[in-house]
C-alpha cells in the first residue's frame, strides 16, 4: 500500500499555493491517505469483462446532422429587419 507523507502534502500544498498549518497538514495527510487506500481497493476489482466507457450513462446525441442546405437569399432576410442600410442590419450603438 502506498503511503503519503507530510512532505508530499506540503509539496502539493505549495504547488496549489495553499498555506496549511501543521494541524491541517496532519489532517490532509490522513484524508489523502484514506483516498489513496480507497483507490487501491478499486484496483482489486475484477474488470476483465467490463467494457471501457466514456460515460456511465448510455447517452445519445439528439441533435440533427449538420448537413448543408439551401438558405434564403440575403435580400429576403434583410426584409425582416426594422433598419437596413447597405445590405446590413443597423443596430443602436453600444459604445459612447
From TrEMBL:
<dbReference type="GO" id="GO:0006412">
    <property type="term" value="P:translation"/>
</dbReference>
<keyword id="KW-0808">Transferase</keyword>
<dbReference type="GO" id="GO:0006450">
    <property type="term" value="P:regulation of translational fidelity"/>
</dbReference>
<dbReference type="GO" id="GO:0005524">
    <property type="term" value="F:ATP binding"/>
</dbReference>
<keyword id="KW-0067">ATP-binding</keyword>
<dbReference type="InterPro" id="IPR003837">
    <property type="entry name" value="GatC"/>
</dbReference>
<comment type="similarity">
    <text>Belongs to the GatC family.</text>
</comment>
<keyword id="KW-0648">Protein biosynthesis</keyword>
<protein>
    <recommendedName>
        <fullName>Aspartyl/glutamyl-tRNA(Asn/Gln) amidotransferase subunit C</fullName>
        <ecNumber>6.3.5.-</ecNumber>
    </recommendedName>
</protein>
<dbReference type="GO" id="GO:0050566">
    <property type="term" value="F:asparaginyl-tRNA synthase (glutamine-hydrolyzing) activity"/>
</dbReference>
<comment type="function">
    <text>Allows the formation of correctly charged Asn-tRNA(Asn) or Gln-tRNA(Gln) through the transamidation of misacylated Asp-tRNA(Asn) or Glu-tRNA(Gln) in organisms which lack either or both of asparaginyl-tRNA or glutaminyl-tRNA synthetases. The reaction takes place in the presence of glutamine and ATP through an activated phospho-Asp-tRNA(Asn) or phospho-Glu-tRNA(Gln).</text>
</comment>
<dbReference type="Pfam" id="PF02686">
    <property type="entry name" value="GatC"/>
</dbReference>
<dbReference type="GO" id="GO:0016740">
    <property type="term" value="F:transferase activity"/>
</dbReference>
<keyword id="KW-0547">Nucleotide-binding</keyword>
<comment type="subunit">
    <text>Heterotrimer of A, B and C subunits.</text>
</comment>
<dbReference type="GO" id="GO:0070681">
    <property type="term" value="P:glutaminyl-tRNAGln biosynthesis via transamidation"/>
</dbReference>
<dbReference type="GO" id="GO:0050567">
    <property type="term" value="F:glutaminyl-tRNA synthase (glutamine-hydrolyzing) activity"/>
</dbReference>
<dbReference type="InterPro" id="IPR036113">
    <property type="entry name" value="Asp/Glu-ADT_sf_sub_c"/>
</dbReference>
<keyword id="KW-0436">Ligase</keyword>
Amino acid at each position: 500500500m502506498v503511503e503519503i507523507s507530510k512532505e508530499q502534502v506540503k509539496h502539493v500544498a505549495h504547488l496549489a499555493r495553499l498555506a496549511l498549518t501543521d494541524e491541517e497538514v496532519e489532517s490532509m495527510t490522513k484524508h489523502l491517505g484514506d483516498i489513496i487506500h480507497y483507490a487501491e481497493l478499486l484496483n482489486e476489482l475484477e474488470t476483465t469483462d467490463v467494457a471501457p466507457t466514456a460515460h456511465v450513462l448510455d447517452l445519445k446525441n439528439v441533435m440533427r446532422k449538420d448537413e448543408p442546405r439551401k438558405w434564403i437569399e440575403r435580400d429576403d432576410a434583410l426584409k425582416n429587419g426594422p433598419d437596413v442600410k447597405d445590405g446590413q442590419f443597423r443596430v443602436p450603438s453600444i459604445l459612447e
